[in-house]
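Revision sheet: structure tokens.
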Amino acid sequence: MNLFLQILFQILLSILIIFGVHQIWNYLKDTYSTRKTRDLVNSQITKYKRLIEDIQSNQSATVPLFENQEEKVSMHNELTEFLKEHST
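Predicted:
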């Protein structure tokens, strides 16, 4: 019975020591460190706003698809002929 009490005492003492060290660690961590808070919502919103601004600013500087009106008309005619061939 004496051995059982020694083992039980050792277990309880170990748990108390671990709990005490854990509490001391939490106290030191909370007292002497600063919390890092991340603003996940607003940071993503600002990234998307910046992305939209970049896209809108680049739209004005896009290169035209056709060099002149004749190319545009030619492409349109080719596409209509292609569609007529494949629709029937």
